[in-house]
C-alpha cells in the first residue's frame, strides 16, 4: 500500500511538474518530454491516473507535442465479450506512438506492454467475480499478442476459451442469486 502511494505521489508530481515546465507557448525539451512519458507509462495506478487526467485535459500538455491518437485495440475487439478494454488500449497506443516519435521505442516496449497488462487486469478487477476469470484470460491473450507479436490480433481459440469461462461464471452467478 505504501509503495502504491509513493508511486502515485511521484506520478502526480511528475505530471504537475511537466505542466509547469511546458506550456503551449514554450515547447518542452526532450528531457522534459521523456520524464513526462515515463511518468505516464508506468504499470501503476498512479501513473494511469496521471495519464487519464492529462488525457482529459490535453491542452495543458500542448507544449509536449504528445500523440494522443488511438485506434483502441487495433484489429481486435475493443470490448471483447463485453469487457471494456478501450482505455487500456488507448494508453498502450499512447506509449507506443510517443516512444516511437522520440526514437526510444525498443528501450521502452517491454515496460509499455507490462503497463498494458497491468491496466487490463485492473479493468478486469472491476467486473463481477464470477466472470472475472474470463476477463483475465482475455487480458493475458491481449498482452501476449502485443508483447510477442507487436500487434493486437489474438486467435479465435483464446476468445472461445474466454467465452466459455464467462458463460460458466454467469451460470454460477445465476445459481448464487437463486435464478435458474
In short:
The protein is mainly α. The chain is 66% helix and 0% strand. The chain has 7 helices and no strands.
What does this entry look like structurally?
The chain is mostly helical and 180 residues long. The chain has 7 helices and no strands. It has helices spanning 2-21, 30-40, 45-55, 86-101, 105-124, 132-149, 156-177. The protein is elongated, with a radius of gyration of 18 Å. It starts with a helix and ends with a helix. Mean pLDDT is 87; it is low at 4-10 and 16-22.
Element layout with pairings:
Blueprint: H1 2-21, H2 30-40, H3 45-55, H4 86-101, H5 105-124, H6 132-149, H7 156-177
Helix pairs in contact: 1-2, 1-3, 4-5, 5-6, 6-7
Strand proportion, as a percent range, falls in: under 5%
Mean pLDDT, as a whole number?
87
Rg over CA atoms, rounded to whole Å, is 18 Å
Low-confidence runs:
4-10, 16-22
Portion of residues within helices: 55-70%
Q: Please report the distance between the alpha carbons of the first and last residues.
A: 40 Å
Secondary-structure element series: HHHHHHH
Taken from the alpha-carbon principal axes, the silhouette is elongated
Total beta strands = 0
Class inferred from helices and paired strands: mainly alpha
Q: Characterize the biggest β-sheet.
A: none
- The number of helical segments is 7
What does the oligomeric state look like here? single chain
Amino acid at each position: 500500500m505504501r509503495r502504491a502511494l509513493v508511486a502515485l505521489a511521484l506520478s502526480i508530481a511528475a505530471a504537475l511538474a511537466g505542466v509547469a515546465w511546458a506550456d503551449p507557448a514554450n515547447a518542452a525539451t526532450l528531457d522534459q518530454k521523456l520524464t513526462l512519458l515515463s511518468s505516464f507509462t508506468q504499470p501503476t495506478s498512479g501513473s494511469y491516473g496521471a495519464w487519464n487526467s492529462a488525457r482529459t485535459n490535453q491542452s495543458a500538455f500542448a507544449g509536449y507535442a504528445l500523440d494522443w491518437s488511438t485506434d483502441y485495440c487495433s484489429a481486435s475487439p475493443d470490448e471483447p465479450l463485453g469487457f471494456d478494454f478501450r482505455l487500456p488500449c488507448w494508453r498502450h497506443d499512447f506509449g507506443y506512438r510517443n516512444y516511437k516519435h522520440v526514437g526510444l521505442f525498443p528501450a521502452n516496449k517491454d515496460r509499455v506492454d507490462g503497463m498494458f497488462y497491468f491496466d487490463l487486469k485492473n479493468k478486469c478487477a472491476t467486473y463481477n467475480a464470477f466472470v472475472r476469470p474470463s476477463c483475465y484470460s482475455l487480458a493475458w491473450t491481449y498482452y501476449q499478442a502485443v508483447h510477442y507479436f507487436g500487434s493486437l490480433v489474438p486467435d479465435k481459440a483464446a476468445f472461445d476459451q474466454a467465452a466459455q469461462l464467462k458463460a460458466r461464471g454467469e451460470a454460477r452467478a445465476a445459481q448464487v442469486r437463486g435464478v435458474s
